[in-house]
Amino acid sequence: MNSGKRPDFDPHDPLGVDDELSTEQLAVRDSVRALCRDQVLPHVADWFERGELPRARELARELGRLGVLGMHLDGYGCAGMSAVDYGVVCEELEACDSGLRSLVSVQGSLAMFAIHRWGSEEQKRHWLPRMAAGEAIGCFGLTEPDHGSDPSSMRTSARRDGSDWVLNGRKMWITNGTIADVAVVWARTEEGVRGFVVPTDTPGFTAPEIAHKLSLRASVTSELVLDDVRLPADAVLPEAHGLRGPLSCLNEARYGIVWGANGAGRSCLEAALEYSTTREQFGKPLAGHQLTQSKLADMAVRVHNGRLLALHLGRRKDAGTLLPQQVSFGKLDNVRGALDVARTARTLLGANGISLEYPVMRHMTNLESVLTYEGTSEMHTLTIGAAMTGVDAFRG
């Protein structure tokens, strides 16, 4: 029988999940948390209000110095850390702001992963060390103005012209596009869908930033326009044929969202807990009212169950047993859960819940984008349904 002293209940870690993380994982988390606290949180509300991320390149270099860009990849300047390490980082980044986590996810899980998994040795050596250091920024062009959930219907095309490729088309809702040095662009060819590594200074390539967003405002979101973009033969990703290439990249990014969305929910819970214990109504703190405690308890259960789910999927990923349908399970549930927590936290803060002096409304609007990017909730629901029944209902 264990006769040691029972640990105190921690309202910020009620299930003791931190005990399941290694010393190294906690150290990585704390380093990223410190960067967010010192360099982003003092400014992010103002950036969100202005609809810009003015220090994107500087932040990328800082994140590169911490080793978190492409951190789950091996070699070529990448840290070669575990999937759980990467997840813990995504949780901290999105607890700060979804836009910051998106910058890192697109850099590492989409653009860098595409080159690392499907690229040539020359492409890897040329781009990955600079991208891992944050000296070069990448973006990932798959979604089109008329084709989001159905990438098989993409219109962007690549045709051979002698030994060159010539690309034409448009991509939409592309994080990092306007500031990127390289774009991984997927296009239809005579031999099926292929991926191309496109330096953004190539003639015919432009990336106007998308304005008038009400979500992910502290993030660079762009359109990619390809107008007779001529590339050499070695610009194609040699190992990627068909949709397997881009879908494998999306699965990497979705895994990060499982952790990241939970970070946004955690931030909302912490804001609501702090507010309810210091704000008085009817002669006592809000936290002293039964309905407030009910909301706080429900939010805590949602957030920390989500954390356990993310950790479980991360361990499966590290073991090589994680299935795409399980990633869909995690993305679907944790994003919906984080949105529920954000909306409940908003009610606890009353009118202050809509103020940028608090993070809740910013997280809530950001999560409305997270709900639909990297696969809408409907698509993930159907993915799980098809896996359970053996019946594909996507076109039904």
Automatic annotation (TrEMBL):
GO BP, one annotated term: fatty-acyl-CoA biosynthetic process
Domain Acyl-CoA dehydrogenase/oxidase N-terminal: 23-135
Keyword RNA-binding set for record: no
Similarity comment: family membership: Belongs to the acyl-CoA dehydrogenase family.
Domain (Acyl-CoA oxidase/dehydrogenase middle): residue spans on this chain: 139-229
Cofactor(s) listed in the protein's UniProt record: FAD
Claim: Oxidoreductase is one of the keywords in the record: yes
Parts of the chain that traverse the membrane: none
Keywords: FAD, Flavoprotein, Oxidoreductase, Transit peptide
Domain Acyl-CoA dehydrogenase/oxidase C-terminal: 241-388
Gene Ontology molecular-function annotations: fatty-acyl-CoA binding; flavin adenine dinucleotide binding; glutaryl-CoA dehydrogenase activity
Name the UniProt record assigns to this protein: Acyl-CoA dehydrogenase
Species per Swiss-Prot/TrEMBL record: Actinopolyspora mortivallis
